[in-house]
Amino acid sequence: MNASDASTMEALWSPTTLGSIHLAHRVAMAPMTRSRATGDGIVTQLTRTYYAQRASLSMLITEGTQPSADGQGYLATPGIHTGEQADAWRTVADAVHDAGSTLVVQLMHVGRVSHPSNTPHGRQALAPSAIAAAGDMFTASGPQAMPVPRKMTRADVAQTISDFRRAARLAVDAGADGVELHGANGYLLQQFLSTNANLRTDEYGGDIAGRIRFPIEVAAAVADEIGADRVGFRISPGSPLGDIEETDAAELYPALVAGLAPLRLAYLHVVHLGDDGLLRSLRDGWPTGLVLNRAGADMERRAQDVRDGLADVVSVGQLALANPDLIDRIVAGAPMNSPDRGTLYGGDERGYTDYPRLAA
């Protein structure tokens, strides 16, 4: 690393705060589904070890965690809507704090990206409109087409907002430093934003003002419950995941950010897919911390984002997954482990807690 690169990297190492969450430096762990919870959505001792191993990162954003039984779409994902689930998360939060980091639980309601056989109650999925997402869902009996979801009634909307609120309360009462609302990757909150998943004609659909209403109401309810300074919101403008189309992303996301801004949430988490003009617009319109996930970029490029003021914190995914001592490796300029793609989802400790450290 030359002197210029070293100077750029220094931007990562100063402490900062995101709302009430104090970070020792500017490198956080991005949320990543690992599908290693029990059948009833409870995280395990392996989960505790996995997060504690990665506590050299300043903030650990957990895998997507369903705020209700209706929010589950995949096999073996964790929940935080029962006391037993919350008690298990408490052990994770304690381990992460003991190791010197902070824990933010990502609340993920998958909406239509689901299959009834993957849920504890076997019910039809909920979504803004009764339109199936293209593609298959992996189930215990193999891949199956994702079925048509049930269009949410106003009562469903109100109940889902209440579910997010309660899950956030359970998370912070279990010791989490905050929660992140998953408004990205084709899941429920982004489905409401979408021009092909949301064909509603009531106040939750139609124009941009209607389509952003539900995500903003969820954020407002959660902020009211646990404090805005403990709440993040993740977006992925223009992402096609989950069979999503956003034909008006250039107007949609500035409007969403403008609607969220008065809440003064702890942070906005942006998955950057290449539209630099939109990213700058969102940065300029956001009043608090911005976490940037520039997938695939090297650490020098991510550090430059902090130095340029595009980001306050950068989040890293598979680098953190495969390198429990990621910060040590960055500082030392050491080679990185590569992730074992065959063990990303489901399984045991292999590809989860057994990645080697430098000292090994």
Automatic annotation (TrEMBL):
The keyword Chaperone does not apply. Its EC number is 1.-.-.-. It comes from the Bacteria. GO terms for cellular component: cytosol. Keywords: Oxidoreductase. The keyword Oxidoreductase applies. Residues 12-335 form the NADH:flavin oxidoreductase/NADH oxidase N-terminal domain. Its cofactor is FMN. GO terms for molecular function: FMN binding; oxidoreductase activity, acting on the CH-CH group of donors, NAD or NADP as acceptor. Belongs to the NADH:flavin oxidoreductase/NADH oxidase family. This is N-ethylmaleimide reductase.
